[in-house]
Amino acid sequence: MIIAVASGKGGTGKTTVAVNLALVAGSVCLLDCDVEEPNAHLFLKPEWREETPVTVPVPEVDVSRCTGCGECARVCAYHAIAVIPGIDKNPQPLVFPHLCHACGACSLLCPTGAIHENRRSIGIIQKGTRGSVSFAHGKMNVGEVLSPVLIRRVKELADSRGLTIIDAPPGTSCPVVAAIRGVDFCLMVTEPTPFGLHDLVLAVAVVRQMKIPFGVVINRAGLGNDAVENYCRVEHIPVLARIPFAREIAVCYSGGETLVDKSLAMAGLFHELYKNILRVKDETDRCS
Amino acid sequence: MKVCITASGAELGSQVDPRFGRCQTFVIFDLESGAIEAVSNPNIETSGGAGIQSAQLVASKGVTAVITGHVGPNAFGVLNAAGVEIFIGSAGTVKDAAEAYRSGKLQRAQAEDARSKPVPGR
CB–CB of B52 and A79 under 8 A? Predict the structure, then answer.
């Protein structure tokens, strides 16, 4: 089973929930798919074992075969190639690697076969372990835009037989969709504030559209107002855990420590959360 | 000799549009004959690469200079490769800008610290 931990709003506690859930779930694979700024390793502190580069194809044009027809620039949906009259009047193709989405259309459709593909590095995947948790994350190079590609590569490391927990990026756009597509359950972490509610509503629309069973974790419970609780009640969304708004938790987080290691009450809360996920997942499966 | 002025409309009295890639109109002005061609910019609502597309369009019109407010690194790279001079910081009407250009008052943009540079074919 794959459980993704997502949220609309950033900073609600996805990583805290993902890491602590992994630690109580026993033998588990934890994948940090927030490749633009992975941080689960700061809390898990895995022993690193392996690092692999991730590359994507990027076109290179052989000008001796280029007729300047401009077909590559026309077919590129991302405007990553321009063909211009150069200073010497010969047609000059220009490639913008950072706009390229590596779809391959230009090299496929070039009538003279003047385009071949090089590999361009977009980031790395690092793997490690801590106890019974096997861990991996993607780290995207600064300035890159192709996070869905790297996220999909990280997800290929999911344990097909056991339990995998994915720490998803925040928001509701392509990287989130890439991270949660195909998962069995989605935990939405929110906080009881107007911002928390606003972005939760957007994120719920995404998981409903993707038909992924889900439940909510309210972090910093006791802060703000009742609007998130009321919304969940009206929408029949199960609230699977409430993590209290407490100074000790903030202190623990700031020191890079995990809640379940510091507090028995927290270990109990995350055990309960895991049981609740299994129960709700089971109920949803039986209804569908 | 033709120059391109980025404008918010198609007239000589239209204001210079400070954006290059997503300006409303490219006013292409023939300095010898005084003829104007106004090209409505098809790249205004493109999701990305507007500067590249616009630079490609302008270069294909055979202009020798672009007069605008600001130019980004990608558009700069394309215009530079096409041998089109770039003058930034222009304001006022299209007519003012053309006159400022003619009297040599405009500052030519130098190569900037581009975030992403195009890779030329080999």
Answer: yes
What interface predicted TM-score (ipTM) does this complex get?
0.75
Query: Range(s) for CATH 3.40.50.300 in chain A?
Result: 2-54+126-287
CATH C-level class of B2-97: alpha beta
pLDDT in tens, A192-219: 999 999 999 999 999 999 999 999 999 9
| Domain A2-54+126-287 superfamily per CATH | P-loop containing nucleotide triphosphate hydrolases (3.40.50.300)
Chain B neighbours among A 160-189 (CB < 8 Å)? Answer: none
**Exposed, middle or buried: residue B104 (CB in 10 Å: 0-12, 13-18, 19+)?**
exposed
* Contact check, Cβ <8 Å, B82/A87: yes
Answer whether A96 sits within 8 Å of B74, measured CB to CB: yes
Task: Name every chain B residue with its beta carbon within 8 A of the beta carbon of A92.
Answer: 81-82, 120-121
CA–CA distance, A213 with A238 (Å, rounded to integer): 10
Whether A61 has its CB under 8 Å from any CB of chain B: the answer is yes
Q: How many residues does chain A have?
A: 288
